[in-house]
Design goal:
Mean pLDDT: 94
Number of helices: 14
Largest sheet: 8 strands, mixed
Bound molecules: ligand PMT
Radius of gyration: 25 Å
Structural class: alpha/beta
Low-confidence stretches: none
CATH architecture of the largest domain: 3-Layer(aba) Sandwich
Strand order of the largest sheet: 12-11-8-13-16-17-18-19
CATH topology of the largest domain: Rossmann fold
Number of domains: 2
CATH superfamily of the largest domain: CoaB-like
Amino acid sequence: MTDALAGKQLILGVTGSIAAYKAVYLLRELTRRRAEVAVCLTEHAHQFVGPLTFRTLSGRPVLTDLFDPQSDDAVEHVAIAERAHAIVVAPATANVIAKAAHGLADDFLSTLLLAARAPVLFVPAMDGAMWDHPAVQANVRTLRARGATVLEPDAGALASGLAGKGRLPEIEHIVEALVRLLSPVKDLAGERVLITAGPTREAIDPVRYISNRSSGKMGYALATAAFRRGAEVVLVSGPTAISPPPGAVFVPVQSAEEMREAVLQHLGTATIVIKAAAVADYRPKAPAPEKIKSRQERLVLELTPNPDILKQVAALRGSAFIVGFAAETRDVAERAVEKLHEKGIDLLVANDISRQDIGFDADENEVLLVDRWGGTEHLSRRPKSAIADAILDRVRVLRAQAQAPAPR
Ligand code: PMT
């Protein structure tokens, strides 16, 4: 699959924050993904990282001072701005945010931001107290109201020695926000999608548990696809080895009971719910408070059923569209229809988990979609990212059909 950033003309604006060194890593990642990046350094950014580093990594001259008589850049800023598919300002100081909000143009970057018609992504990094200041917050609101994307800074240790919200977000989050910005399809804008993923772990004692082979890949692919298509995403996930997908509100859980609580907590605002998690159907009735001694002659575990989260969600859904998954080892089509009706949901995605090449822990999947209006669709084997997009396409079509006025 082609990378969404390949061949894209980007401008990376770097301003005077200690986080300027992280812009080097961002540039490296953008060029690794074959974006063509022109770097624009402000005068203050020079104090933190020299232009040679950016020039070497981007393979292009670095744009700096608008008024340098030796430079062709001064006449170039409109042309560069016109060519750009997107502008990323990372790190974005309180100063550049203020200049952009008020339309100041006193250096190359601020002039470029005024001249550009390309979408702009600001990635703030500053002291926590500065970020919280009403003036900065007002400027951020102004930029967002005009259509710019301003990421929230991360919380944690700051260069000032204090802790707070002001750190540059992780590089992969910045890149994912950029991919979303450049994504031509924003058909899920305004939707709030609640997704579950991964396995649950049911404690036997403090060190042992019952679980299953779910890797979380299917649910995480759905979260990434929904975010790219403009949705607000909450991902409730059991324990997995993969990093939380950038852009989603991530709610980690362990057991089915914790998953149920988290799902019900976020259900009220969701417009679409997708339950890709492999919830353990049973849990030990009385987990041992101490580690159970090994080498016992015989050990009997009494199991009790876990709550059926999907059924509860379907009963409390309001107007949300509910999608469930079914993990089957045979008679996939018949069981899918049975499960759809038993759970009382709108769409069921069935996969054959007896196969090694799809389903649990595989990078690809092949599924059968069965909906409550009697429709079915077979999605042939493909990457889980493509399956995720096709499921979201189906959800959109079914919702539009369900909402259309009945023919007279
Ligand atoms: O995570 P991966 O490695 O990428 O693998 C993906 C997957 C195989 C886990 C995924 O594609 C999948 O099939 N997920 C559903 C697995 C499952 O639990 O199926 P089920 O047939 O047992 O459950 C049916 C539905 O009820 C599911 O939506 C499940 O989330 C839900 N459920 C089940 C039991 C329970 N107590 N509460 C639930 O909500």
